[in-house]
Amino acid sequence: MNKPEKIWLSSPHMGGSETTYVQEAFNLNWIAPTGPQLAKFEENLSTYANNQSVAALSSGTAGIHLGLKLLGVQADDYVICQSFTFSASANPIRYEGAIPVFVDSEDKTWNMCPVLLEEAIERCLSGEFLTGDGKRWTGPKKLPKAIIPVHLYGMPAQMEAIQKIANNYGIPIVEDAAEALGSTIAGQCCGSFGEIGVFSFNGNKIITTSGGGALTSKNPSMVDEAKFLATQARENTPHYEHKVIGYNYRLSNVSAAIGIGQLEVLPQRIEKRRANFEFYKEAFAGLEIQFLDEPMGYFSNRWLTTVLFDDAPQPLNTAVRLALDAHAIESRPLWKPMHLQPVFQSFPYVGNSFSEKLFKQGLCLPSGSNLTLDQLDRVASLVCSVCK
Ligand SMILES: *Cc1c(COP(=O)(O)O)cnc(C)c1O
User: Fold this and answer.
1) Is 250 helix (H, G, I), strand (E, B) or coil?
2) Whose CA is nearest to atom 8 of ligand 1?
3) pLDDT tens for residues 126-176?
4) 348 within 8 A of 99, measured Cβ to Cβ
5) Pick from 326, 332, 322, 320: nearest CA to 364
6) Which of 176, 181, 252, 367 has most ligand 1 atoms within 8 Å of its beta carbon, as the pocket-test mutant?
7) Which is the closest atom of ligand 1 to the Cα of 150?
8) Do 354 and 311 meet the contact criterion of CB atoms below 8 Å apart?
9) What's residue 178's pLDDT?
10) Atom of ligand 1 at shortest distance to CA of 59?
11) Which of 81, 222, 88 is nearest to 145 (CA)?
């Protein structure tokens, strides 16, 4: 018997014109470092960031790191971060030696809970916390330097409530929109709510430059500063003059050429991912499987379709994942919350364990924009056979 063809969780999906733009870069010998393709990619990307300025970078992680640098985050500062996320949201906090304060999620969007955010800010002022592993923790009494909400799986976080609290205390926001390119609230793009927004074009994201990211801000001088830091912080002199520590974080011109082509098909990619979500929702009607609906006015790019299984008698997410795996179908548990990660569990945590429930009961289903109806049918019939 032939081995069944592999179905991936979320694989790259080229539109066709990427190689034309890459060829253009080659024809001009703009292989590296910067060049016209990089400038064009930034200009086109700006459409998906409410026309803010954009700096294209080597990764989304680099964007979060530079965002924290631009806001002056230093060792022993507090930075509040959503706990239910990928580790790249939090790692840059530690690059700077700052203290992550992990905040749990609410059930409408699965993102940062505004009530817990406010509690976390108050705890920063008192310097008293419990850690992810339940121990007492005391530290400096001061306001956090930044807040990092995440639009996980493409679903926008409750930005209105989060911004209101952040504004009350005068704390800037670094918005992790790595998974949410094209998602909006009341028509406003994710990535354009905070002082700084960050996108990722890693291989599994909704569009890819084979590896890359971007930082965006309403404030063009912040974006200029990001580009400066991303190119080794070289001063404008004939020789190499440096006054501050720099990084090698700029996106290459060739990668940007791929990005130009990918941006052209982003609307179709979003449409298809949203269609995947609707397909699964219909296929699983009648089963004990929950989907996360969009709150009024929220538009998710549905980067990944995520489902929750009932917890009684026990969640079927693992059984489903193993059954899919046995048929060469990739699925994945939801993100394990940061406050439960060995590397972060001894840092402050403010929560209600909601993200832990999501981790225990959830599953990400194959969600690529290149999935065929046939492949979706294969996934759905296996899930149904385990759940019936
Ligand atoms: C992918 C991702 C990042 C990091 O982006 P890279 O481009 O892979 O560095 C950050 N945060 C979240 C939520 C992500 O999914």
Assistant:
1) strand
2) 202
3) 999 999 999 999 999 999 999 999 999 999 999 999 999 999 999 999 999
4) yes
5) 332
6) 176
7) 13
8) no
9) 98
10) 7
11) 81
What burial letters (b/e) apply to 206-239, b meaning 16+ CB within 10 Å? bbbbebbbbbbbbeeebbebbbbbbeeeeeeeee
Give this prediction's pTM: 0.97
Name 98's Cβ contacts closer than 8 Å, sequence gap at least 6.
Answer: 68, 73, 74, 75, 76, 77, 78, 79, 145
How far is it, in rounded angstroms, from Cα 316 to Cα 223?
46
Q: Which atom of ligand 1 is nearest to the CA of 200?
A: 7
Q: How confident is the model at residue 311 (pLDDT cuts 50, 70, 90)?
A: confident
Residues whose beta carbon lies within 6 Å of some atom of ligand 1: 59-61, 85-86, 88-89, 150, 176, 178-179, 200, 202, 213
Q: How far apart are CA 370 and CA 11, in angstroms?
A: 8
DSSP E strands, 149-276: 174-176, 184-185, 188-189, 196-200, 213-217
Is 205 noted as a catalytic residue in this protein? yes
- Amino acid code (one letter) for 189: C
Strand order from edge to edge, sheet including 128-131: 136-138, 128-131, 348-350, 99-103, 78-82, 146-148
Rounded CA separation 344/136 (Å)? 15
Among candidate residues 205, 227, 336, 360, the one labeled active-site is 205
**Residue 107 burial by CB count (10 A; 0-12/13-18/19+): exposed, middle or buried?**
exposed
* Predicted confidence band of residue 4 (pLDDT cuts 50, 70, 90): confident
What's the CA gap between 81 and 294, in Å, rounded? 23
| β-pair type (78-82, 146-148) | parallel
Q: 312-347 pLDDT, tens per residue? A: 788 999 999 999 999 999 999 999 999 999 999 999
Distance of CA 264 from the midpoint of ligand 1 (Å): 22
